[in-house]
Every structure is written in structure tokens, then in C-alpha cells.
Design a protein that fits this description.
The protein is an all-alpha fold and 211 residues long. It has 8 helices and no strands.
């Protein structure tokens, strides 16, 4: 009886944390939309990640990581996919209405179900397949492709969902080898280093275009 009660308490706590996380992401999206009017997406992504590096770094400093490791390439893949998806998300956020950008990004659960079936051998029940089909219909209704083609914002929006889904799916395997903070840090670090690299290369790219 105590174990059941404890499990219910943990579920309630998990639901609360999920709601708080969703609220925090909503605030982040709103602030990112505002600053994207004056800052390029690469810089918005940089500041989104650098603060995370500091906070997670402090958490790791106070309580050292407890992990076995052994899957560095998968860890790098998770960070790279998360970074690419976030950069695409902030890019479209600067050019299309916030509601549409968020809707594209939130297509990730559709692709998570598909990737979990393909890579984790999870079963897809009939109800799940029906929900996925409805989800794709929703994507088409949001994108409203003209002449049967998607524009670049539609493509980047869908990619932000796919990239996020690949990152989420990889966490299932990474949790067996790495501390949760290390998984989060991989995403933050790749995002910080990647945006720093892009910012450094941007002036060189503009110079190259002159020749």
C-alpha cells in the first residue's frame, strides 16, 4: 500500500514538473519572439544555451556526476540534433506567427512515436497509428502548402519537430549510461559552441561573398 501511495505521489510530482516545464517553455517562446525582432536566430540560440551551461555546470560542480559513460557519439548526436532543432525553431519564430512556430515544434511527439518504433522496437497500437495520421493531417492544415509544395518556413518548422524528436528518442538509450545532467549539458554545450562558431564564421562568409 505504501509503495502504491509513493508511486502516485511521484506521478503527481512528475505531472506538476511537466506543467511547470511547459509553462517555462511558453515564456521562453514569448521572450524569444520579442528579442528575435532585433537579434538574429544564432544569437538568440546562443543566449538560450549559455545560461543553461552555467546553471547545469553549477549543479554538476555541487554534486559530481554518477555515470558509467561509453556512448560519446550518441551523446554528441543528441546535442547536435537538439541544437539544430532549436536553431530552426528560433529562425522560423522570427518570420512567422509565434503560434504557428510553436505548433510546428510541438509536432515532435508524432515523430517520437515513429522513431521509438523504428529504433527502440516499441509497439505502435492502432490508436497510436490513428493519432499519428491525424497529426500529419494537422501539419498539412497548419502549413497549407501552395500548389502542393511547402515553403522554407514550413520545412524548417517540420525539421524542428523531427530534430527534437530524434534528440528525445536518443535520451531513452543515453539514460542507461549518463547522468541526466550530462545529457542536458551535451545539448547546451553543443548549442553554445555551435552558435559561437557560426558567429565567428559569419564575417568571413560576408567577405567571401564580395569576391
Amino acid at each position: 500500500m505504501k509503495n502504491v501511495k509513493k508511486m502516485i505521489q511521484n506521478m503527481d510530482r512528475g505531472i506538476l514538473f511537466m506543467l511547470l516545464a511547459s509553462l517555462s517553455f511558453a515564456f521562453m517562446g514569448g521572450f524569444a519572439k520579442v528579442v528575435s525582432q532585433t537579434l538574429p536566430p544564432v544569437e538568440v540560440t546562443f543566449f538560450r544555451n549559455i545560461f543553461g551551461v552555467v546553471l547545469v555546470g553549477l549543479a554538476i560542480y555541487k554534486v559530481p556526476l554518477k555515470q558509467t559513460g561509453g556512448r560519446p557519439w550518441l551523446l554528441l548526436f543528441r546535442g547536435s540534433m537538439g541544437f539544430a532543432a532549436l536553431l530552426a525553431y528560433f529562425y522560423i519564430m522570427a518570420h512567422i506567427p509565434l503560434g504557428e512556430a510553436v505548433t510546428y515544434n510541438k509536432t515532435s511527439p508524432i515523430f517520437v512515436a515513429i522513431f521509438a518504433y523504428l529504433f527502440l522496437n516499441e509497439k505502435l497500437h492502432k490508436n497510436a497509428i490513428f493519432a499519428i495520421a491525424i497529426g500529419f493531417v494537422g501539419i498539412i492544415l497548419v502549413a497549407q502548402p501552395q500548389g502542393g509544395t511547402f515553403d522554407k518556413y514550413d520545412i524548417l518548422g517540420i525539421f524542428s519537430g523531427i530534430g527534437a524528436a530524434l534528440a528525445y528518442t536518443s535520451i531513452r538509450e543515453l539514460r542507461k549510461y549518463y547522468d541526466t545532467r550530462a545529457i542536458v549539458m551535451s545539448f547546451m554545450l553543443v548549442g553554445t559552441v555551435g552558435t559561437t562558431f557560426f558567429n565567428a564564421c559569419h564575417p568571413l562568409y560576408k567577405r567571401f561573398r564580395r569576391f
